[in-house]
Amino acid sequence: MKEISFEEVRQLPKESYRLIDIRDEELREYGMLTDAIAVDVAGDPAEVQAALSRIPAEKKLIFYCEIGRRTRDLEESAFAAGRECYSLEGGYIGYVRALTAEESSSGERQHRAEESIRKKFHKQLFTPFAKACKTYELIEEGDHIAVCISGGKDSMLMAKLFQEIQRHRHCHFELTFLVMDPGYHPDNRALIESNARALGIPVTIFESDIFDAVDTVDKNPCYLCARMRRGYLYSKAKSLGCNKIALGHHYDDVIETILMGMLYGGQVQTMMPKLHSTNFEGMELIRPLYLIRESDICAWRDYNELHFLQCACHFTETCSTCHEDGTTSSKRLETKKLIAQLLKENPFVEANIFKSVENVNLDTVIGYKQGGVRHHFLEDY
């Protein structure tokens, strides 16, 4: 398929083309280009043709994937014979990086993003952020916090919220905005850097070879990758004089983890709002987005027309994000859909899942584990 560049697309009249997103659903969850439609070109050919036939014949079809590989190799005659088709050079990542680079120098995007946190999204974002920090004692006098940025919407927003709460000066603490490059495709790293510049986040970037290390691992590569990334972040943060690392897990991550633990792990557990490191003495992990809903993060992202990275492995552009428990985002997406289905019958499902791990009645459980030691109800029966 012929390639078309970002600059060439920008010169076309908006009404002369249509953007077609062919990425997997997990990737589209992280954002799509404006006015694009999603089409699964690997699906039923009849459905693909039907979707494309609804686009006026005179419009150019510009297909994009994550970094431009899949669309470049597409054979348009299979589903779009007779149409003027193009592959977007650099894909989603390349387009967004070019767009962000144009706007980063003016400071306009930074101002708009910060203003929206203070006004339009103050109740949805800053208030629960500050509440989590106070309720769980996440920020203390004299802290030096490494704000760990993966490049996604959650960690980028977390960085902006930390900058905002630091302005209030309720206590003195330092921030280091830490980005680890575990072997990103160059376009992915460039997108993180351009977004950080556009949003006024002074990042410190260091490199590791984690993706190479797990590339050949057959069993649980996501789990290994997640554990290694955590260790590298702790190590680098401690070397920079930090006593805490902050990760961008939000309310929805918490309830999905609880449910997945029961359904797939046979256990009742949750993501803790903070915990001590077992391998790095004096270090803590905190999760200040603990009470923030993902839908509100997405609303902030879309309101500001921001496009962020999905933490994709370097050897496949469709590999899903590795979560700290080793699950992929496809498994989380499955759980997210289950919760959405349950919500149709009970609007309190999410809150009930969240509160379930705060209301554990040990008198009614068969067994539990504390401090690595298993206990059984018969011990005190």
Number of helices: 15
Write down the secondary-structure element order. Answer: EHEHEHEHEHHHEHEHEHHEHEEHHHEE
Mean pLDDT: 88
Q: Unreliable stretches, pLDDT < 50, 5 or more residues?
A: 314-327
Query: From the coordinates shown, what is the CATH architecture of the largest domain?
Result: 3-Layer(aba) Sandwich
Morphology: globular
Radius of gyration: 22 Å
Write down how many β-strands occur, each being a DSSP E stretch of 2 or more residues. 13
How far is it from the N-terminal to the C-terminal residue, by CA? 71 Å
Q: Which fold name corresponds to the CATH topology of the largest domain?
A: Rossmann fold
CATH homology group of the largest domain: HUPs
Please list the strands of the largest sheet in the order they lie side by side.
8-7-6-9-11-10
Largest sheet: 6 strands, mixed
Q: Structural class per helix/strand content?
A: alpha/beta
The helix content, as a percent range, equals 40-55%
Number of domain modules? 2
User: Beta fraction of the residues?
Assistant: 5-15%
**What is the CATH top level name of the largest domain?**
Alpha Beta
